[in-house]
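RETRY 2/3 - previous attempt timed out on the joint model. Re-submitting the same 834-residue input unchanged.
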Amino acid sequence: MTKTSPALGEPLMQIRNLDKSFGGVKAVQDVSMDLRAGIVTTLVGPNGAGKTTFFNLITGNLARDSGQVTWLGQDTAGLKPYRLARAGVGRTYQDLRLFDGMSVWENVLNATEHGAFPMPISRAHRRGRRERMEHVLERTGLIDKRHTRAIDLAYAERKFLSMARIMATEAQLWLLDEPASGLDPNSYERFLTILREDVAGGVTVCIIEHNLDIVVGISDRIAFLDRGKLLADGDPKTVLNDPELARIYFGDRA
Amino acid sequence: MEAYIYNLVNLIAIYAILAVTLNFIMGYAGIYSLAHAVFFGLGAYVAAWVALHVHPSIFVTLPAAMASAAALSLLLALPALRVRGEYFVAASLGLQVLAVTVFSEWKSFTGGIGGVLAIPPADVFGVEVFKPQHFAIVSIIALIVVIGLINALVHSSFGRNLRAIRDSESAAASFGKNVPMIKTLSVVISAALAAIAGALYASYMSFINVESFTLDTSVLVMAMVIIGGTGTVAGPIVGAALLMLLPSAISWIDFLPQTEVGALQQIIYGLGMTLLMIFRPGGIVGRRAAV
Amino acid sequence: MLAIQLAITGLQTGALYALTAVGFSLIFGSTRIFHFAHGATFVIAAYLFYWVYGTGWGLVPGVLAATLGAVLFGLVLDRLVYVPIQRHEGSFFTVFVASFGVGIAVQNVIGMIFGRGFTSVSTPLSRSAEIIPGVYVSPLAWIAMLCTALLLGALHFFLRRTHTGTALRALADDPELVRTFGLNPRRIAATAFVVGSALVVPAAIITSATTGLNPTIGHHVMLISLAATIVGGIGSISGTMLAGLLLGLAESLALLVVDSQWTEAVTFAILFAFIIIRPSGLLGRIAAH
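RETRY 2/3 succeeded.
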């Protein structure tokens, strides 16, 4: 893998004054944030806080009303999602969006292929790719299921396939939408291991997560969103110990 | 009797080419077109014109037919595939209706309602092929080549991209796929290959007119794909054979007037499509519920 | 004079297109069911009227039979075809193919019963009168416009002012929301089929008494309905209505420059222009992507 690793802490994606409303309802308002190299940022906040909308806005899946997003110093305005993906921004979806009719292997293979046209590739390249994919499938525990269709996988396996797809790409930034929700403790440990290894390997992660244990365990930084507003952005302990934020987060349960 | 069977073989092979090429976009890219007969027809008219005015060799007529169909499909697909699936259904239906008018009105090229007569037989390496049993070799080879090409495509990275788009467009885009470009390309390939069927049809029948290229034909081909099994290799071929044999089967019903055979055939495959969608969306060959 | 004549004919055609297309748009917009057999509903209503009225049973029984036939067909299709399909998966295209199959079957059954040629009903109202020198208008033209205005007005009231109507509008965005109204989404969807199917009846009857019918007219009806839905903007009833009028007028006025066999080309040109330039349609709210 030839990743041009920017220095730790250097901003990869800079988000300034992001705004989006749906028919009068403000889904995201005036959010500014830097996603820095090698840093794990976790987005937390109650349901409907605008976390997924935020992902959709910075990947270009949704058009923003106003605000600016730069990637590696370049303005991303008007950039189609597939362009940004090729430039190194990868994402997963909360509802996974696997390629259900394809096998596990094809799902992962497809994630490594960008071009519209079939290109001849060298034997060495092909072997390198196969080894990389096998490694990814080993780590996600899917190697024995490589010929199974995605739709026939169990819940946890589907979540890992979603991870395997992004692991097989050369994306520098991973936007993960609730990748660990609903995982059993073992799977969850596996997930944490994967994440730690890849972060150590130079990947930058921004993750949406509800489970506060996960959040504390892996985050370098927490961004707290509520009703589209960024209420806090800082180191995990400070943010989570803020009684006001706790009230908002647990408010409906207390 | 022998000539009758060979004739059926030729027609099944030609329609199977249409079904296989339509299945390429329906089954693998999730694009539903009601204009497949337009590319069939354009291929036939262009091949007829080239055979009459330039040279009857299939190595001249086929490329000309394919190129024109590809160009027309590009005009349809470029705008209509940037937007949601419903738009393509509507635009292709519109193109089909418009094409029938053009085929009936553009007399200098299509001969109007009267059609094009005395199209020279196919010329393969200087040999004129006009007997049904000889033509069957040509049409079956063409079918095998088309199936081979499409299978190779489906199992290439291009085919994986298509299937990925069918399963989730947004996820495909998140993995760097230029979705409108890939879809457009698939429509162009499908149309160009459908034109092969048109060219073969023109030289085999030696007479063509607009009747063969109406919405009914587009619907028939779509029914072949769906009834056989969308997104499978064997499905469209099984569907083509089945629906081409249907009229002969219906003719065995004594009390049915000959004029009603076509109508009964359409009723059967219309209801067949509906029932399959309710009980077995994968079609006859499909292994399970379509995804 | 010709231009005025064509404009009036265009308004008449456009009014009927608007009614038919709004029927489709209402069903598609609220249930997301791509009801391609809407054209078949039109054919059934038209031929039932043709049969009952033509047999000499009179106007009112004819209209009643057409309405009953259309509504029943819509309801039965919803119950026997769409509900089962949506229960197991209900992708857009599965529904489309099933609906399409029914449309083909209906077209051919009608063709076998009534013949495949052109037929029309002559009523006392079909005869044209000269309203200004050189411009002939039949009373049916005024009836078409009046019917459209009344029915679309009533539809507007129903959608905006009644409980069921509001639920119908909410159905497309969020079926769960309908439950919070205390209503059953399936019942609301069935209502959409009843109303949408009933809306084609005046168009079917007036068409049978003016330009005439043949069993394949369903395809034309579908092309118009789809084109009007897209040109108007998917999800917008008023947009579909405007687009229907526009398409009717354009088809008619096009006769100033082209022969009548090209009228469908005009529809296609408008549809294509919108797909290229403004895919969200005249009044579309939903993004086209």
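The mean pLDDT of chain B is 90. Closing ticket.
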